[in-house]
Amino acid sequence: MNLDIKKRLSIFLLGAFILTLGVSLIIKGDLGAGSWDSVNVGLYNKIGLSIGTFAFIIAIFMVIIAGILRKGKFNFYTLITAFILGYLTDFWIFILNKLLTFNNIYIRILYLLCGIVILSFGLALYLIPNLAPNSLDDCMMAFRERFNLGVGISKVITDTIGIIIAFIVSGPIGLGTILITFSVGPLTNIIYNKLSNKLY
After folding, report:
1. Distance CA 145, CA 70 (A)
2. Mean pLDDT, consecutive 10-residue segments, the chain of 200 residues?
3. Which three-class secondary structure state does DSSP give residue 91?
4. What is the three-class DSSP state of 62?
5. CB 3.0-4.6 Å disulfide test: which of 18, 36, 69, 149 passes with 153?
6. Cβ-count burial of 174 within 10 angstroms (0-12 exposed, 13-18 middle, 19+ buried)?
7. Which H or E element spans position 200?
8. Are 87 and 52 in contact (CB under 8 A)?
9. Each residue of 124-158: b (16+ CB within 10 Å) or e?
10. What are the backbone dihedrals phi and psi of residue 95, each rounded to the nearest 5 degrees, phi first?
11. Separation CA 94–CA 24 (nearest Å)
């Protein structure tokens, strides 16, 4: 990619800023979140630390698991991305709680749908510079490498583990979880292809 490091970093941070807005809108809709976001919300409701803080704590565990799968190779740099995403998620949740006071079912559905589109757009931007992945994504790739699995199968495994834990901690698993599971990947792929062609 013909982008210098400053441009790549700018695109990466802009993508993170946008995708965490999408995540926060989905959480605000309270109709079900992504598997690991549901874990973070469930832990937040039970224990009280911020959602972003739990995202970072889980990222630490993901780094450890990925390192074990890679027989001692720990990618601690992925925690930088995890910290940024966690911080921005907390920022957006704070802002949205102040600005969005309407909470009937139709508004919540709107939050969910807008959140999915915004998340997909931000995720595509975040992926284009090919900088440090989030710890969860890196752990997924560690599963792929260790057991010679496809990326899709590895994602299903990590998402399934997240859903199981989310149920245990009473996280918001629901309609939104299903929509996110089946729509974010294809949407992100379409947006990624269009944006990367413009930014090359």
Report:
1. 8
2. 78 95 96 95 94 96 95 92 96 94 89 96 90 88 87 82 94 92 87 81
3. helix
4. helix
5. 149
6. middle
7. none
8. yes
9. bbbbbbebbbbbbbbbbbbbbeeeebeeeebbeeb
10. -65, -45
11. 9
Instruction: Tell me the angle at which helices 5-29 and 175-199 cross, rounded to the nearest 10 degrees.
Output: 160
Token pair 């079912």: residue: 105
Write out pLDDT tens, residues 171-182.
999 999 999 988
> What is residue 6's DSSP assignment?
H
pLDDT tens, position by position, 54-74: 999 999 999 999 999 999 999
Please report, for residues 3, 84, 126, 172, the alpha-carbon distance to residue 77 in angstroms, rounded to integers and kept in the order given: 22, 12, 16, 29
Residue 17: how many CB atoms within 10 A of its CB?
17
- 43-50 contacts at long range (C-beta below 8 A, 24 or more positions apart): 43/169, 43/171, 45/170, 46/169, 46/170, 50/90, 50/93
Q: Give the H/E segment covering residue 86.
A: helix 78-99
Which residues have a Cβ under 8 Å from the Cβ of 115 and sit 6 or more positions away? 21, 22, 23, 24, 25, 26, 28, 29
Domain that holds residue 107: 5-199
**Exposed (0-12), middle (13-18) or buried (19+): which is 169, by Cβ within 10 Å?**
middle
Task: Dig out the tokens for 2 from the structure.
Answer: 């013909």
The reported pTM is 0.91
